[in-house]
Amino acid sequence: MIKLIIDSTCDLDSNLISKFKIDVVPLQVIVNGHSYKDKFEMSVETLYDHIRNSDDVKTSLPAYDDIAPIFEKYAKENQPFIFISFAKALSGTNNFANILVKELQEKYSTQMAVVDSKNGGLATAMMVEDILDFMQTHDNFDEIVNFSNELAAQMHHVIMLDDLTQLRKGGRISAIKSVISSVLSIKPVLKLDQGYIKHHKNGIGKKRALIELVNYVEANSKDKNTVIGVNYSANEELLNDVLNLLAQRGFNHIRKGRIASVMTAHIGLDAVSLCFLGK
């Protein structure tokens, strides 16, 4: 049996983690200079409180001792493993894991691979669920890796932000643009493109921006039976508004989740996103 390993940005259900004995590698959340293991030492709710208090919140890749011993243990045991990482474009986690795997491949013949999810949160969780299902009928290592990479390429993810404060703090938008957007009530709609956060459209006002989110789903989903992952941070009003819009368009196969804590540190509390396997 091939072992799956995920990082803490993947919001996989704890029951599945226990059932399939999946190892979870924590990224680091750094608050006011103090480092915490994501989800292990800091909950999403605690992170929200720090952001509300305008604390200095940053994130970092996993500590060496939280990832290397797991990889080496399975390499020594000749236990094949696949690590599904947070988007390579957003974190050094994927590169770090690849370096560790290359070092281990010089010592062991164990099959090892690192897959860039190009995503995080519920989007990655939905991918991992499909991978687990695929593994029930397939045991070829390369086939599973290829299937995982195909899923990553097919996953769409669009995000609407109602507040640009965290993006500005992270240097992803200038203070001037942040102020102008606030004054004019311009709400950016972003998308993850191969893991990179890119601008998709602007909406004048929250309602128009949410409509643009749903327009994107309608244009890029396979059909109305597509499972749509709806992610939100701390703003339940945004969640309910986008759920109503999806229902009006005939999308009724919905998965709800919270935006991963590491992503929240980048985009803030007033955000909602939609993810799905597209055309």
Automatic annotation (TrEMBL):
It comes from the Bacteria. Keywords: Lipid-binding. GO terms for molecular function: lipid binding. PANTHER family: DEGV DOMAIN-CONTAINING PROTEIN DR_1986-RELATED (PTHR33434), FATTY ACID-BINDING PROTEIN TM_1468 (PTHR33434:SF2). NCBIfam families: DegV (TIGR00762). This is DAK1/DegV-like protein. It comes from Acholeplasma oculi.
